[in-house]
Amino acid sequence: MNRFIRAVRNADLDAVRGLLREEPKWLAWSEEDGKNALHHLCGLDASGDPRKAANGLPLLKLLLGSGMDINAVHRIASGSAPCGFFPATPLWYAYTRGRNDALVSYLLAEGANPGNCQFAIAWNDDVEAAELFRRYGAEIDGGVFLAAYKWKRFAIAEWLLKHGADVDEADEAGNTALHHAVKRRDPAELLQLLLRHGADAEQANTAGVTPKALAEANNRKKALTLFAAT
Asked: What InterPro entries does its record include (predicted)?
């Protein structure tokens, strides 16, 4: 770790200012995968360190005001991503790693792209963050509702449905949330939530099995009663 990044990670505002005056080249520095000072700063957990907590926002303002890219991408290798990596931005770091509300709010207000934190918000079952990001233009990513439901993050799953998520989006095996609800024997109120938002009990997965057929095969009488009522 170089001295500039050490100063950033120590939230040493005076040291960072001095280094930038001496060698502005640090503003363009990054690791091979794109990780730079903004990612290191926004990923700091300052919850137990009052100095880091106090200096985080001034440091962020200094780096952005000196010309660093608010949407700089750290390319985190990911076999599941179409391009082979996940594009981790300073905002993503501030929300997922630093858990720093002040930095998240500032980045959003300054125009940071709000669009790559949806799965993290879903994992955290964080309706408050979902509302905040939505106010700054975040749209609902495909697959995030189904992921939330499968993770049993039901508060955010319901929020996503209320804001336009597709209740019948399916995984690679063609299973919808309703398939998973029947398989897991989820309580009736969760089945009712899905059905209120238009879940299709006749939508077949890749094996040709519908949620209704699953309920019949597993003697899910309550589910069948709910399906018949829709």
From this structure: Ank_repeat_dom-contain_49, Ankyrin_rpt, Ankyrin_rpt-contain_sf
